[in-house]
Structures are given as C-alpha cells and as structure tokens.
Amino acid sequence: MKRFDIYIIGVGGQGIGLLSETLLRAVDHSGQRAIGADTHGLAQRGGMVSSHLRIGNDVHSVLIMKHSAELVIALERHEALRGMVNYLREGGTLAYYDTVWQPLEVRLRRAKEVKKDDIEREARNRNSKVLSVLKEDLKDPRMQNVVLMGTIAHNNLIPGVSVEHYERALSDLLGGELLEENLELFRSVLKQE
Amino acid sequence: MKRIGDILLSKESGSEIMMGNTAIVRAMLEAGVRVVTSYPGSPTPEIAAAIASIPSKRNPMYFEFSVNEKVATEVAFGASVNGHLSCVFFKSVGINVAADSLVQLSLMELIGGMVIVIGDDPGANSSQNEQDNRHIAHLSYTPVLEPSSPSEVYSMFLEAARLSKQMHLPVIVRLSTHVCHAKERVKFRDLSSEVRDDEPRFSIENGPYIPITADALGMKRRALTKLQGFKQATSGLNLNSVIAGSDSTIGIITAGAPFLSLRDVLSESDRSPDILKLGVIHPLPEKEILDFLSSHEEIKILEELDNILEMEVKALAYDSKLSTKIIGKRDIDDWIGEYTPDKVSQVLSKTWPDVVEPSQVERESFSLPARPAQMCPGCGHRSAFFAIKKALRESDITVADIGCHTLGYLEPYKMGQVLLCMGHSSGTASGLALFNNSRRVVAFLGDSTFFHAGLPGIVNAVFNKHNFTLIIMENGTTAMTGHQDHPAVGRNFREVTRKIPVKKVLEGLGVENIREVDAYNQSKLKLLVEQAVEEEGLKVIIAKHPCMLKFTRELRRNRKSLPNPVRVGRKCDRKYVCIADFACPSYQIAEDGPVWVQDDLCIGDRSCVQTCPSEAIESDDQ
C-alpha cells in the first residue's frame, strides 16, 4: 500500500498508549511497514493526547498532515469531533468510543457538550463514515481501548490487518491475567458486533 | 509477552519495533557504555525506562538519576576521565542547568569518551521554551550528530560513542521530541561480550585538567584542534547524504526530523529539488556543502528553530565566491514551531510555490472546547490550591515553579502568575517582595525541584532576610515526568537509600518558620497560610499529599480495587462549587443543570467532600 494514515485521539489516562502500540505492532505483524509516534509531555495529565500511525513504504515523518487521515480513532466523544475536524480526510472513517469526559469549558458552562448528532452531522458534511461503540457493563474504564480495537478489527478498518494480527500484537505487549482479560474482551466484541 | 530488557540484551543481531528512546539504549550497550546519568525531563525519560527494563544483575551499565543535570554531567565526566565510556542525557532546558560544567568538557581529555544526549523540544510540547541547543555546541566547541529516525538514533549514537572514545572529546547527539518518540522497526547488530576494564585510569599525565590562566588557552587550542579533526574523522562515514529530485537546478539543505517532513511534502510534488541531508551538524562538512551549492542555482536552507545553518552556509558561499542564490528564513514564522509536514509545506511554499502549493485556507473554523492538561482527580495540589486561594487576597502575588503544580495557573484556580524555570520561585519571590508592603508574595515549589535547583534560592532568602511565604507542594515523587524517585523518597534508581526529608533540610539551612500539613486538610492549610502571610521573613509551609496517580496505579498493579466513587446526593442545591471552584474533572454537568460524577474518572479520594457548602457529596466508603 502506498499510504494509509491513522490518527488516534483521546484524553490522558484512557490508555491511548497501549492502543497505538498494539495497532502499530498489528500492522507490523501483517507484513506492512508501519511508523508512528505518541504525543507525550504535559498532555498526559488529563489533557488531549494523540498518536499518529502511518502505513506504507512511502511515508517518512511520523506525523500526519491535517485532513489526511483515512481513519480517525477516538476514545472520547469531544475528542472524536476534534479528531475528525482536524485530521480526517474527506470520505474517511471515524471510529470512536462513546464516553463523555467533559472539557473544562463545558463544565464551566461556557461551551456546549458535544452530542452524538453533532458528530453525525459533521461526518455527513465530509462524506465520512462513523462507527460508535459503547459497552455499558465494562468492569474497568481503562479497557475501553480494547473494546474499540475489537470494533476496528471486526469492521476491517485497517486494510490487511486481521484478527490474528491484533491478538499477536496484544500478546507482545501484555502477559498473564491481564492478557487473558484483554483477549477475552477483544473476542467478545468481535462476536457481538 | 516480549520483554524489552531481553531484546536490549540479546546477543544476536535482530530487529524490533522501538522508539528512538529505546533504540539508543541498545546502542549504548553495543558501544560499551559503562556509566549513564540523567535528570528526568520530557522528551527523554523513556531512555531511563528502557534502562530500567534491563534486569539489574545483567545490566553492565551503572545508571543514576542525579539531583540535577549539572551533577549528572559531572558524574558522567568523572567516569570518563577515569577511562569509562559515559553518557549523560536530559531535556532541552536541562542544558542550561548543566552548562557551567558542560562548556568545560571540550577542554578536557575525556579518555573514556562521553556522549551527551539532548532532547530538544521544537514546538515546546512539554517545555517552557523551544530553545535551539545547537548554539551551545558552538559555544563549547562540541561536535553534534543529529539523527532523524529511531534507526538513525541507534547508528549515530554508535558513531558518536566510537569517535568520542577515539578522540577523547565530548560528542552531542541531538534528538528532538518526535525523534525520541518516533517508533519504527530498528535493525540492530550483535552484542559482543567484551571483558570490561574496571581499572581507574585517571592520570594528570592525560591533562592538564585544571583550566587556569595560560593552561586554559592551551586547552582551548586543543579543543579547537580536535573539532577540526572531527571533520576529517567523519568524512567518508556516510553520515550526510544527497537525495536526487526531479529538478537538479534547485536544492534543499536540511537535517533531523524536518528532513522526513520534507520527504512527505515533496512526495506529491512534480518539481522536487535535490536534498542534502546533514547528519553532522557541527562542525559542518564544508566540502559536501560547497559541492552541493556549486552544482545548484538556488538553495533553500530548511532549518527548524534558529538560523544557525543558514548563517554558516552563507558565510561558506561568500568565502568561496559562489553566486548560488541561498534562501534562508523568510519571516518570524519560520523561526517558530516544530517543522512538521504541515509546517514544512507552509515554509517551502513561501519560497517555491511551484514546488509546494500554498495550503488552502483552513476549511470552516470550528470552535471546539480546548482540553489543556489538568491536575488529576484526587490530586493533592488541587486540594491545596483550593484552600490557599481562599486564604489570599486578589492583590497578592503568587509565583509558580515547574512541576504538576504549575497547572494551578489555569482556571479556575489561577494560582501561580509568573514562571521562569525550575527552582526560580524563591529568588523571584524575594525580588517581588522588595519595596512592597502591600501585596503579599507566595511562592510554590515541588519536592523534586527543591533538591534540583530550589535550595540556593531558599538559602539566599535566609541569608538576605527576604520576606515571602514558600509553599512546598510535596507529593513524594517527580510526578510530571513519570514518577521518578528523588532524595526525600528513600529509594534511588537502583536501591533503598536513607531519606533526606525536606523539613530537615530546611531546618539545616536555617529556616526557622516551618509548618507542615496534609494538603487534603483544607481548613488547616487555609489557616496556616493566613497566619504565615502576616508574619515577617521567610515562612515555609509544606503541603503534603502523595501523588494520587502514582498511588492508584500501584493499587491497580497489585490488583487491588479503588474506593467507590463519590456521588452527588439530594442535598445538592446547585451552588456548583465542585464544578466551578474545586473543578475536579470527575464532576460533569448536564445541560439542564444537575451535576453528576463520571465514574470513569473518580478515584474515590473524597478530597472534594469538604468543599461542598450544602454537604451534598456522598460516599459509600467512610
């Protein structure tokens, strides 16, 4: 593949690091070249965090250009809209976990909370597809990232990367009980979807 | 599960997905580095995380987090003049702290070799400025290699270590944020198990090591001679390269991460210039640059941050009487920000609009609420700021320092109104208190920073009888950079050590007015601040509470559950103190007005319960 850019966005503390590293390794396991980077620093304290993942032989910088991602993955609703507006290309796909962590401006009632409809409307304006997922009975909010990964795998959102590659990537990064729990959750999402 | 420590120690050659900060540790091991030192700071702390992944018994390298970058530099220097290959690493502004010692290094015969790894931060992603540390390389006659990707980080560190050891001179490997954090599959060579030489080889015969009067000038001559020699030593190493484009009349000289951005930007272009990509950025490879200049009609210098390369290349062209048109920075914008692909596209389109089209105006301007970093749920600093704010007047002056507590400057707390750098707060507060009888001055300081650069300002305040209140926000760790231990913790990177308690140090320094309080005890903290600000001289309040992010992570790691989240009960009459003043991010507000608690975020710390004037915050735990 010439180029497939993925932009991942969320809030510090949501496990975006594990998600991006797993996706990078899943692409690598699929035999395609992958490069990427997480943004770190101050942002990790409950601020917006993002991660860039690029697939293809003709990609150089680890950073994606604006409005050029084929796929935007978001772990929170406000960040889903931000990611789509800033990075998604016309006709691309947004996949997001539909939890709400209100930014300060919303909590102080200076800005409106983003609604599901806002995202749908904006996606239509961009001829883009939207996939939203929420699992009510999740025992640990830090596993939302794995639910979203299941949605991505089930819908084949990353070309050439199959379930087996995601599972191998998870096994590279986790071990013991933690791996078992995450694999079980990942597989349960695949079945439900 | 792959264990990064095992991969780093693998005897065989191979490849692995690594970030730049991990790849450099493999290179350290292959190069035979014995001593590594650092002070934590983004974008480099993951280098220490990679070192920590190596089982300590199998790690041939000694590593320490020193109390600051200057001491770290000195420890690495001492090891080097004793014959050990050493490495010190720190963030961009760390070099300012290290500078007093660092500028002397090139004067010394570093018989073991010493590599200085700097993590510059173009874009100021996590720093108080985006200073260009190539300047200090010029100031200190130190050669610099600059990689652009993790694979180059690995290979250039190996070259830097080899040359440093061979020529007995310091070599800087200059990284930047997205070189440190970039990930890719990195190929590495095998790891030889050579026998380590532990003989202490320090000898004044290798010197002189005392740069006083006439010797200082002789030592400078030696440094400059070595710098010249570095040019020859690196020619033919393929550290610089030319990439042919489609239009050989125009060329671009660049280096580091901007080179990769440029490749992306040009991949869509019908008219792409040739590129000279520099790996050795000081001293410059003059012949390669002159060859490139003389074979093109127009040259663009694509350079992140300052115009160092531009000035040097223009001087070279002038001396060689070349008529090639050389285009450097066009306006102030070109000096500011990280050279991402978007930025490079913008910069280049100003020079050659037919090579890169000026980007279209942003599509509709879309206003979305920003999400800046904030203090975590349960953070002791939030509880402290909430109480301290109540004890102060609007007109009082608050001085911030570096750490998680810097975030107190944000709404709604607005605690901390001025900031220079680590440890500045006592000195700045002292100055603010001069000729000032009306506005009380309160300074903040973190516990790791207390040891890093905070002590001299406090001693000075005692010595010169300055008049302000210093609040030490003690959370028992170096939180902002990822929870590294500091001298008051009772553990260093390797082992348990004797605690050096902040309060005892203050007493030893001659501070007489010291109060201590748990930052969750808001009424007591408020009272102590009210008392302290009315007293004369230096008053210190230690507001203590362990970092709750560290605490909850440890609970989870040990598979223990957190306390139950709080909830908003029936007594709530919508005064919104929890939302608008205490502002823990767990509190959310529905459109029609009720407040609710986001269970994903609340850690059940209950530091908020005391803030509700209507006693509406409820908890199942006691």
Describe the structure.
The complex is a heterodimer of chains A (193) and B (622). By secondary structure, chain A is of the alpha/beta class. Chain A has a single domain, classed as Pyruvate-ferredoxin oxidoreductase, PFOR, domain III (Pyruvate-ferredoxin Oxidoreductase, domain 3), CATH 3.40.920. Chain A has seven helices and six strands, in the order βαβββαβααβααα. In chain B, the strands form six sheets. In chain B, strands 3-2-4-5-7-6-12 form a seven-stranded mixed β-sheet. In chain B, strands 9-11-10-13-14 form a five-stranded mixed β-sheet, sandwiched between helices. Chain B has a five-stranded parallel β-sheet with strand order 15-16-17-19-18, sandwiched between helices. Chain B is built from 20 helices and 23 strands. Chain B has four domains: 4-194 and 210-234, Rossmann fold, CATH 3.40.50.970; 241-351, Rossmann fold (3-Layer(aba) Sandwich); 380-554, 3-Layer(aba) Sandwich (Rossmann fold), CATH 3.40.50; 562-622, Alpha-Beta Plaits (2-Layer Sandwich). In chain B, helix 2 packs across helix 3 (45-52). With 622 residues, chain B is α/β, with parallel strands linked by helices. In chain B, 34% of the residues lie in helices and 18% in strands. In chain B, helix 7 links the parallel strand 6 and strand 7. Chains A and B meet through helix 1, strand 2, helix 2, helix 3 and helix 6 of A and strand 8, helix 10, helix 13 and strand 21 of B.
The CATH H-level superfamily of chain A is: Pyruvate-ferredoxin oxidoreductase, PFOR, domain III
Roughly what fraction of the amino acids of chain A lie in strands?
15-25%
Number of helices of chain A: 7
Please indicate the percent range of residues of chain B in DSSP E strands (runs of 2 or more).
15-25%
Total strand count of chain B, please?
23
User: Largest sheet of chain A, if any?
Assistant: 6 strands, mixed
- What is the global morphology of chain B? globular
Write down the CATH class of chain A.
Answer: Alpha Beta
The main β sheet of chain B shows up as: 7 strands, mixed
CATH 4th-level superfamily of the largest domain in chain B: Thiamin diphosphate (ThDP)-binding fold, Pyr/PP domains
CATH architecture annotation of chain A = 3-Layer(aba) Sandwich
Oligomer: heterodimer
Low-confidence stretches of chain B: none
* Tally of domains of chain B: 4
Chain pair forming the biggest interface: A-B, 63 and 59 residues
